[in-house]
Sequence to fold (344 residues):
Amino acid sequence: MDLPGTMRAWRVTTPGPVGESPPVELIEAPLPTPLPGELLVRVEACGVCRTDLHVTEGDLPVHHEHVVPGHEVVGRVVADGGGVHGGPLEDWSVGDRVGVAWLRHTCGRCRWCVRGAENLCPYARFTGWDADGGYAEYVTVPAAYAYRLPTDVPAVALAPLLCAGIIGYRALRRAALPQGGRLGLYGFGGSAHLCAQVAIAEGARVHVLTRDAAARRLALDLGATSAGGAYDAPPEPLDSAILFAPVGDLVPVAMRALDRGGILAVAGIHLSDTPPLVYESELFYEKQLRSVTANTRDDGRAFLGLAVRHGVRATTHTYALEDGLQALRDLKAGRFDGAAVLVP
Fold:
C-alpha cells in the first residue's frame, strides 16, 4: 500500500484556555513510523473527549510536548512496525478495523499489573497524552492495546465507545449498583449517556442530574426514569451514583442523595476542588466515595461486548478534522448533547 509522507494533525502548542489564543494548531506533520509491535492506523474517526480538553488547556500536566490529542480512534490497519505478524500478535492484518483507546502501555510486572489492576500501573502511558493521538489522519498503537471492532457499524458511532463508553462502564462497576437499583448520573455528556444505556439495559432506574436542558431531553429519550438540574435532589434515594461532571461542588450534593450504604464513583481524570463533607449527612450510614482511574483492557473488551449485545449507540455530532479547535470550544461551552467526533 502506497502511503503519503505527511499528514494533517492538531498539536498542542502552549496549553491554555481554548476560548482565547488557540492552544492548538493544525499542522502538516511527518507520517508516524510504527515501532516493532505497533500498528499504523489510518484514522476514520476520532471522538472528542473531555480529557482532550484537559490536556489542551493544561488541567493535566504536559507529558509529551506538542502532543497530538485524541484517544477515541477508529481506523484501519495500513502497516506495522514488524514483530506483529508471525508472533504472538499475528492476528492483525492490513485492512482490519481497529480501535485505539486511552490506555497505551503498562509494564506487566508491577504489583498492580500482576494482580489484574493494570489501570493502576505507575508506568502506564496514554494515547493523546504520553504519545500522539487521533486528532490526525494517521496514528500508531501497540498491537497488544488495540481493540478489534465490528465492521458493520459506522466509525463515527464507534469512536465514543473507546473512552467515553469504556470509562462509563468502569465507573458503573465501581459504583457497585445492585440488580434493579437506583442510579444517579451527575452530568450527561459523552460518557454518561453511554453508561445510562448499559445501566437501563441491565434493569436499573436511572436518574439524570445535569444543567443542560438538551441533555435532560436526551436522557429521557434514552429511557431515564427522571431528569433534573445538577443540584436538584433526585425523586428517590440512590443506591449508587456516578459523577461525570468535573465539578467538585457536586460531590457533597451526590453524597446527600445516596441511600444507606450507597456508593458514589467519580469518573473524571480531573475534578475541581471539593468542599468539606459533613459526616452525619454525607458520609454516615456506610456511604462510600470512590474514584475511577483509567481502565483495564478487560474493561474495554467487556464493555464493547455489552455495547454490541445491547445495541449501545452514541449520540454524535460530526466535525471535519480542520474544525478540531471548534469542537473543543463547543465541548467546553456545552453546545451539544452526546459526543463530538472528528472525521478526517
